[in-house]
Give the backbone structure.
Amino acid sequence: MSLLEVNYLDVRFALRRGEVQALRDVCFSLDRGERLGIVGESGAGKSVAAFSLLNLISKPGYIAGGSIRFDGQELTGLSDRALRRIRGHRISMIFQDPMMTLNPVLTIGEQMIECLKAHRRIARREARAIALRKLEQVQIPSPEARLDQYPHELSGGMRQRVIIAIALLLDPDIIVADEPTTALDVTIQAEIMALLLELCEKHNVGLILITHDLGVVSQVTQRMLVMYAGRVIEQGPTREIINDPQHPYTQGLMNALPQMATPGERLNQIPGSMPSLDNLPSGCAFHPRCAFTRHPDGSERPSCRCQVPEFVASGNCQVACHMVAEMIERERIPAEETTR
Amino acid sequence: MTATAIAPSHKAPATDADRTLLEIRGLEKRFSLSGDFLEQLKFKGGRLVREQKFVHAINGIDLDIRRGEALCVVGESGCGKSTVARIVMGLIHPSGGEIHYDGTRIDDLSTKSLMPYRRRMQMIFQNPYASLNPRMTIQQTLEEPIRLHHPDWNRQQVADKVAEVMHSVGVAPDWGKRYGHEFSGGQRQRIAIARALAVDPEFIVADEPISALDVSIQAQVLNLLMDAQQQRNLTYLFITHDLAVVEHFGTRVAVMYLGRVCEVAPTATLFATPRHPYTRALLSAIPRLEDDRPQHIRLKGEVPTPVNLPSGCVFHARCPHANARCREEVPTLIAHDGGGRVACHAIEEGRLV
């Protein structure tokens, strides 16, 4: 059994104008020490998926259904008190903006010690020693001095290192990182990602990396999910998806990258934009933007418009697309006939 | 090589392509950190002294932008790239240096005499959520610059121009009556581009125009900018931190670090053979789709503060090839046979190839 198993997660936001379903039927799992990427554009639901793991969705959002099993324990419906034993302890989070995450009126050391004391009965001096050791692990120059500094005295990259150190403080099993390097520059981003990767490998920590950057996902993770309008539309080993994306949306996303076009030529754009969650198209949510809603002979494929696609296995990947399902079906039938 | 590569393949006569549209000479910009006069007075050792601190945002930049090209300026946050864009547009005044537009010095012009140039150069900002006036309809937003620059036009002429520009950037006519908040980021950026094109400019400064947008929308907006360049024979100064976009979009690239230009080269040359140690590190840091593990060049430390600039080459403290000369003498841009220019002592001396 996997360390973390999410099944048919359903998250909704009760708004005055009605209920908005932010996540539908999201299923994934994470093994110990595995690195999983969640990719999608803004509004796809990737951050909601991450936040709901620790029930960090604030009102009016709530988990309406599905299950989140962590190490054999069901997390949905767990009391705040019980959840607190897992949050920051066995599953910790790294947020996007390092300035927002750190408390500006406490020193770095104070914040790290506070976190340790919240979870363990520990002497102050001992906590400080652990904090120092973690700061050394994240390769901060002169860690001793940093303990007594305030967040504003550190640069963006340094702050993100501190946050990684805090995330590692209690030796968690899983780190959930929500766009950890988006606010940083390219060179700093590369260093932070390399550091995160190295620490996860060394300490056998699982990583759920949420990002919109396909390059980062391809370099850090082993498996990935692609989300669109609150659903997972494709998942599988990262290499396979990057090298051979099956879902038309994943293909479109990859092809839209500037490095996929000849310099100076037009980029391959996906027409339209992501639908808003309270007004989703019927059937496959991607169908109004999809170039493959017709059969190869030109006739329309009505299922794209009417029916939500189920996952089909394509190699090691799972794809939710009627066109892919049809292609696999077509390949399978002749194969069966020849074996007969 | 550069001149032929830059020349738009149609229309523009050959002589036009060689002509420099914008020249930046010895540009400097300091921002005071010390507030007004009274706040600068400090009591030190029994005496009143005046102390001033500056952020040295730009420290001597020379750049030429040729007609019809897209010059991309890249660098990390705080390197001064946006400041360059703002000074070129006349939104802030330089502390030193000159800017010549089509042969005329424009940085010292009065607001009134700058007006004709303001029509010829337009700007697209980074954040389309902040750059559209929330209390104006799209129609009003697009009409405003036309009315300002063509006070003699009648209503019909203005309306026709708005309709034309809306059509050319793919803004539906019925958007005109709606307000900015009704649109998504990509749609707003489309409107911002329409507003910039409304007065038929020849030069557009785009400050991170796609950074706030999603990947699939970025492609749409980049395509729009490239179409506009072809149809209208535009010249771009394109500010960005996204190197993948630069590789695709730029004719030439200028890499900035701490307010100085460290390398300028035609795009293909720069990406094939980056020369400056900083450019090499920057290029190696782009996350690539292809290889599994990156071999990126790790730089020591972080970008120093622009308040106390390092002596000599601004990059020397992080550079693996720095020596005594780098710590003392400021390197100048020197042309190399690849068609670009590099400011690096190590390359000049042949220590680094």
Summary: The interface with chain B takes residues 41-42, 141, 155, 157-158, 185-191, 193-194, 212-216, 218-219, 239, 242, 252-254, 256-259, 261, 263-264, 266-271, 273-274 of chain A (CB under 8 Å).
